[in-house]
Design goal:
about 100 residues, mainly alpha, two-stranded antiparallel ribbon, 2 strands
């Protein structure tokens, strides 16, 4: 997984990421995943921000929220600067 996938975390604004393989051989055998599917899942779930621990899936959701508000920054900064967003209810956003 490329460590340069993102320059800045859309959730917290920090710049350090990690990439881990999350699928193990027995699971791959059980699920019968193709190599492309394995790469996709490992990227989506195993690429994460060192600071806030959000994985790529959660960072993508954070980026979608900030873009919906026309904000060019992290979700953390949007929440700190915009009291209106604190009134929103998010059904699910992993920590």
């Amino acid at each position: 997984m490329p460590s340069s996938l993102l320059e800045v975390c859309p959730a917290c604004g920090r710049r350090q990421f990690t990439a881990e393989t999350i699928l193990w051989p027995e699971l791959l055998d059980d699920w019968k995943l193709s190599p492309g599917e394995v790469d996709y899942i490992n990227l989506q779930q195993g690429f994460s921000c060192v600071s806030c621990k959000n994985n790529l899936r959660s960072m993508t959701l954070a980026a979608a929220v900030t873009r919906a508000f026309g904000f060019d920054g992290s979700l953390e900064h949007l929440c700190a600067r915009n009291s209106a967003i604190r009134q929103l209810t998010v059904i699910e956003m992993n920590p």
